[in-house]
Amino acid sequence: MKARDKPRERGGWGGEGKACPEQSEGSPPPRWAVMLLSLLVCTGLKAKPPSEWQRLKTIIADDPLQKKAIQDIVDYWETHNTIPPPPLREKEKSKAAKVIPPPKQKGPPPSDLMLVKTSQQYCETSNRDQWQAWVATLKGPLELYWRALVTRCSQSEKQAISLFQTALGPLMESKSLHAYSLVGHQLLVSMQRRNAMRKEAAATYLDLINQWERDSPRPQDMGLTLPEFMFRKIDDYLFAARYRTLVGDYRKARNLTEKALTIVDASRSSLTKTAKDREALIAFEAEALHILAHRIAVEKKQYKKAVAFAERGLAIAKLPQEWEERFLWFQGLYHYMDKNLSLAEKKWTALLAKTNSPNLLPKLYFWLARIAAERGDLREKETLLTNLEEKFPLDFYSIVAPELAGIRSQELWQKAYGDPKVLAMRLNASHDYDLAIMRSNPEISMALLRAEIFVAAEMFDWAEVAAEKLYSLMTRKFPVARHKDAFLYLSRLLYAAGRYRNAIHVSEMLNEVQSAFWRTSPEQLYIYFPSSYTDVFVESAKESSVDVDLLYAIARQESLFEKDAASYAGALGLMQLIPTTARDVAKETGLDSRLVERLFEPDVNLKLGSRYLKKLAANFSNNPPAVIAAYNAGEFAVDRWLTQRQHEDTLLWVELIPFEETRHYVSAAWRNMYVYKFLNAVNEKVVIKRSVDYIKNLPSDLPEGAKQ
Asked: Mean pLDDT over all residues of the chain?
């Protein structure tokens, strides 16, 4: 079982008579981990043996470094008879409630007419009682609007949506409050989008545009500068156009896009005084032309029109490189869909020669290889695929796409890494890491010692905090290129502590500075594609008849196995479930709706998440990209894409997903599923070896049980 396989409760073990954990093969854990395990676990957590505590304190006193590392744990145990909760991480400290005074004047502050910042301050402050007198100055419709704002910033977005819908009618009826209605619509539609309420968002955008055109608001009415005001207006028109295409209203979508282009042109005379404003207008013009090509012409199968709109985009003066490359990529795609392979190849070859984009390069290598295969040039195909696999060995276009296109068997990329069982053995094998740089720096040495002790003692809440601190110090103080071995050890210690996000980042940094990193350290796949709570994943997959590798793939993409993960939209836990969705799943599958209150518990979260995936699989005929896309963007959007952007070629369907975030999400999660299926082909226990070079002269009078 891998590190952190078993669900755990914050704050320590709890209970009595728990057996000592099994030791890993090889060297024993650090002596202080042994001492702590002996005192806190092997004694059954029943009493405080005075002689053993005294011996521990005496040894600690002889070593200031180790004293600083664990004295706080010992003291807390003596007082509370349990392991203390870990200290707050920096990001948690930043979320702690502050003392923020209420506005001095009645009603909206002049610097925040729309009350958006003020409501956020209210949500963050610890002295809300002092605010009540000011809150009472918000009467009638404005008070309803305030309640919606406050509910929104407390992450109860579904409830906030309902409150905004209640407040908008009275706001629209009061001419003096039209600006609040406009901003209320903007906030409402942003929440609907985050909660995958696509059809509702499309309707709200129409209401929003109608308000722009009916009420003719002024910048000062909304507390905005002229550029902020105009950019918000253009953005609303473009988003409204995107969502009209989603519901199949192409005529209105085109009208809205052309209106946005008109506003952009009209704004150039007054909004080009700063480089920032000029760049924003260029980006809006490019986005409008991209909507005309990719959202409208493509869905109407008018590929030549799509190419022409992209050409107009390329003609924009001072077009940024990112947009130039984007238009060139899509021009090649439109030519390919129009079955004009020579023009597609020409566009993509030119782009390959000029881009350094890590997002574009894998696509270009793959699609050019596919064209070479289609025209029978097998040598060129192999050259392109070899380049792709060497430069981007873990990309979707290296692992998934070649097999789907029928131009490369997946056994070939698997062969490059070898037998997963051998990889597990390599990861378990003793390794002489060069940690001199880590041991020689007092601050880093202390952080390293803390992390190693807590990992060895399986005090994972503490281990996460300590490992995160070590990661911060190492990445700030030392270049990866000069200390590759130390950073390799850091990645594995982070993995063992459960800091998977940081472990993955360190792996990526090593790949950037070390040639053929994944070929020389193939066992690092287990670090880059972690798995935790294994028993719970397997049981949930079995219960719901969902592929366990799909569960792992989604959890890696959603939360990186952080059971306490919470998004701004209110998605919670390992599978990032929105409570409303979880409640619907519970109701549909006959589970207790009260389970929704326990979404931070891995077994509950996975039970509901796996059943939701089962429902999506049934709705979308077990089509992996459609199921994954629906998990990210919602069923309504995927239903529309399967109809409006239907294509017999699955890879082209993925490329045509109009939501960029969802397109990346699908390719990443699908890639994850392939890799997990490969790694899980053997049920091998993976144990991360820890450096023990500082353990010397273990005392002969260790407490009973510590010598095991």
From this structure: 85
> For 33, left (φ over 0), alpha (ψ -120 to 50), or beta?
alpha
Q: What integer is the mean pLDDT of 270-279?
A: 89
Adjacent-strand bridge partners of 67: none
Amino acid 426: pLDDT: 84
Q: What is the pLDDT of residue 44?
A: 34
The amino acid sitting at 498 is G
- Could you write out the DSSP letters of every residue in 646-663? --SSHHHHHHT-S-HHHH
User: Contact 549/555 with Cβ under 8 angstroms?
Assistant: no
DSSP 8-state code for residue 23: P
Tokens representing residue 146 in the block: 């305030």
Instruction: Measure CA of the first residue to CA of the last residue in the chain; give whole Å.
Output: 21
Burial string for 196-235 (b: 16+ CB within 10 Å, else e) reads: bbbbbbbebbbbbbebbeeeebeeebbbbeebebbbbbbe
The H or E element that residue 278 is part of is helix 275-290
**415-473, pLDDT tens digit by residue?**
989 888 888 888 877 677 888 888 888 888 878 877 877 777 677 777 888 899 999 99
Catalytic residue among 285, 558, 655, 684: 558
Closest of 296, 295, 287, 293 to residue 306, by C-alpha: 293
List, in order, residues 6 or more apart from 421 with CB less than 8 Å away.
682, 684
DSSP-based three-state secondary structure for 107? coil
* Beta bridge partner(s), residue 572: 566, 577
Distance CA 72, CA 70 (A): 5
pLDDT in tens, 123-148: 889 898 999 999 999 999 999 999 99
Chain position carrying tokens 């109701």: 587
What is the residue type of 481? A
Task: For 394-431, give the secondary structure using H, E and C.
Answer: CCHHHHCHHHHHCCCCHHHHHHHHCCHHHHHHHHHCCC
Residue whose structure tokens are 């003291």: 75
Within 13 Å, how many C-alpha atoms sit on residue 510's CB side? 27
Tell me whether residue 558 is one of the annotated catalytic residues: yes
* Cβ-based neighbour number of residue 15 at 10 Å: 8
Residue type at position 109: P
Give, as one character, the DSSP assignment of residue 82: S
Of the candidates 90, 74, 85, 66, the residue with the CA atom closest to the CA atom of residue 12: 85
Contact between residue 550 and residue 540 where contact means Cβ atoms under 8 Å apart: no
User: d(Cα 256, Cα 254) in Å, to the nearest integer?
Assistant: 5
